[in-house]
Amino acid sequence: MSDTWVDGNGLAGALRELFAVDITTARGTCVGCGTVGPVAGARVYTRAPGVVARCPGCGGVLFRLVRGPDRAWLDLRGVTCLEIQVPDSG
Amino acid sequence: MGIVSRGFGGRRSSRAVNLPPGQYLVEDFPVLSAGPTPLVNLGSWTFTVRSETGEAQEWNWAQFLALPHESITVDLHCVTKWSKLGTAWEGVSLDTLLSDVASSAEFVLVSAYGGYTTNLPLEDLLDGKAWVADRYDGEALSPEHGGPARLLVPHLYLWKSAKWVRDIQLLNNDEPGFWESVGYHNYGDPWREQRYWGD
To answer: Which end of chain B is more exposed for a tag (fewer CB within 10 A), N or C?
Structure first.
């Protein structure tokens, strides 16, 4: 396979627009193979109609993000759960 | 010696062309991909058409090459707004590939090596509107442009022309594909600028 991708830190800009926290440090679990890791560890394909993040373990699609002029669509069906660091409320 | 005029049959200038709304002209051929480029071994390549009842028709590479091929010159319009004009392809018409399939289905889901999918109305594949193309610009289709073979449906945005096409499933009910399920328009007519849901 030939392969052109950047690491998940390339998602920071696109996701900062949608989330109040830096989602690249969140940890997710791949639906396909169970690999657990930070979003920043995903393989991200940006030369496409949208952004596609793939699992570094199995290559399965973790999530897809499409940015229209006034709307964005985020499909997370490839991730079972995201663990997100938030400020300590205690 | 006469002077050879380039005025007839030459490339259309960008000023003279009528592009779909929102599109701009390119001279190169941009490569877009939602994942790694699958390098498909011709020895194991197959293309399959499955009816809604499960009846399947499959071609291996040699059988596919033996099918009648057509030369097609068409304009391409990508939803990311570039258009490329006068692209020359060779391929097998979907009219040929679907001719022996008994079906009353109205929709298809196209699947590719690598896992990509896209959905279309069946009628958009028929009557000389779509091909499985295996040659571009006189040469074997390169992997980055979808080789060994890709779907070519030039009257719709290019995401419908699935690279590395592997099978076509005929369906009674429409099923959104890879981009159609996450914001991109279900049909994708560039002349009506159907880019996103609700356009």
So the answer is: N
Residue A45's φ and ψ, nearest 5 degrees, are -105, 115
**Cα distance between residue B53 and residue B103, in whole Å:** 8
What is the residue extent of each domain of chain B?
24-30+46-192
* Short-list B125, B130, B121, B94, CA closest to B187: B121
Query: Which residues from chain A sit within 8 angstroms of residue B26, using beta carbons?
Result: none
- Tell me how close the Cα of B6 comes to any Cα of chain A, in angstroms: 36
Q: Hey, how many other C-beta atoms are within 10 angstroms of the C-beta on B168?
A: 27
Q: Which fold has domain B24-30+46-192?
A: Sulfite Oxidase; Chain A, domain 2 (3.90.420)
Among all residues of chain B, which has the CA nearest to that of A74? B182
Taking only the tens place, the pLDDT of each residue in B52-102 is 999 999 999 999 999 999 999 999 999 999 999 999 999 999 999 999 999
Q: Using CB atoms and an 8 Å cut-off, which of residues 18-77 of chain B contact chain A?
A: 30-39
- Do the Cβ atoms of A60 and A35 come closer than 8 Å? no
